[in-house]
Amino acid sequence: MDDIAAVRVNPILATIDIDPDNLNLKAKGKWATCYIEFPEDYDVRLINIGTPENPLVFLEGVIPAETDPKYGFVTDPDEYLTNHDEDWILERMVKFDRQALAELLSQGTSGLTTLIVTGEIIAFEGSDTINVKDGGSSTTSSSSTIGKGGK
């Protein structure tokens, strides 16, 4: 019998920017937009978001990035490759279902909340902190990390 060695690859530590910065759980927006930036020695053009049947990029380990090719931001590099923060370093833009995120966060989360984005194939991980509002007044006195991480 051949020996099989498991190899653990350390993920690329990505810089993540999730919009909106202030998420009202009662708002009816369609998307939470995420910009993924890699350190200088890595190329975000290599990020594979997967397919509807096999998504490869996740928010909080459970919400897949939108992979439906009917959206230009899924298939058109001119839409999903951007310099969003204007630092001359390319970012990969992905979108997540905003209502799925609101449902996940509605389980008692409010105030400053750290969200984790992960990717497979080209393994990466990063996080961003947003302010979660319950639809009433803004609450910034508490802080939490949802942190379900990988898939």
Detailed description of the structure:
- This protein is mainly beta and 151 residues long.
- The protein has one domain (12-145).
- The protein has helices at residues 72-75, 77-80, 98-105; strands at 12-13, 15-19, 22-24, 31-37, 57-59, 63-64, 81-82, 91-97, 111-119, 124-133, 143-145.
- It is globular, with a radius of gyration of 16 Å.
- Residues 137-145 and 147-151 have low confidence and may be disordered.
Number of strands: 11
- End-to-end gap: 30 Å
The succession of helices and strands, N to C, reads: EEEEEEHHEEHEEE
Taking the sheet with the most strands, its summary is: 7 strands, mixed
Mean pLDDT: 88
Instruction: Give the percentage of residues in beta strands.
Output: 35-45%
- What is the overall silhouette? globular
Helix fraction by DSSP (H/I, runs of at least 4): 10-25%
Q: What low-confidence regions span 5 or more consecutive residues with pLDDT below 50?
A: 137-145, 147-151
Q: Structural class given helices, strands, pairing?
A: mainly beta
Number of helices: 3
Number of domains: 1
